[in-house]
Amino acid sequence: MAMTTDEFQQDQPGAAAAPDWLAVRVEERDGYAVIRLTGELDLLTRPRLVAACDALLERGIARIVVDAAGLRFCDCAGLSALLGRQREAWRRGGSLLVIGAHGVLARLLAITGAAGVLQSGPAGTSRHAGGPAA
């Protein structure tokens, strides 16, 4: 059964509050979590995504699916946040996959070659809306 957390609003201590340009919704499932992004992922809003991922990883949930279907914009800082959290998930024996990429994010993924990493994951995982393979 999915456990849903409303908007993830945790900001880093001492940092200025991130603008409300990005909504982060976390849905925990059996053994993995889906993070749904709505709005803009950039230098100012990336702390929200990083905090949501880190909170899951700290609790031992290392298999994460990021649903980017609701993103209107993503810059290189947002892409860097996704790649950084993916490396941390891999380090902990998990995965971070991006689904629903379109528009600017899809173009960034294609131009940088990150699509092959963020949309397919490490050997033994697959991408689909139901979550990462075991």
Automatic annotation (TrEMBL):
The species this protein was found in: Actinomadura luzonensis
PROSITE patterns attached to this UniProt entry: STAS
Annotated ranges, domain STAS: 22-113
PANTHER family per UniProt: ANTI-SIGMA FACTOR ANTAGONIST TM_1081-RELATED (PTHR33495:SF2), ANTI-SIGMA FACTOR ANTAGONIST TM_1081-RELATED-RELATED (PTHR33495)
Listed name of the protein: Anti-sigma factor antagonist
Lineage: Bacteria, Bacillati, Actinomycetota, Actinomycetes, Streptosporangiales
Superkingdom per UniProt: Bacteria
Family: Belongs to the anti-sigma-factor antagonist family.
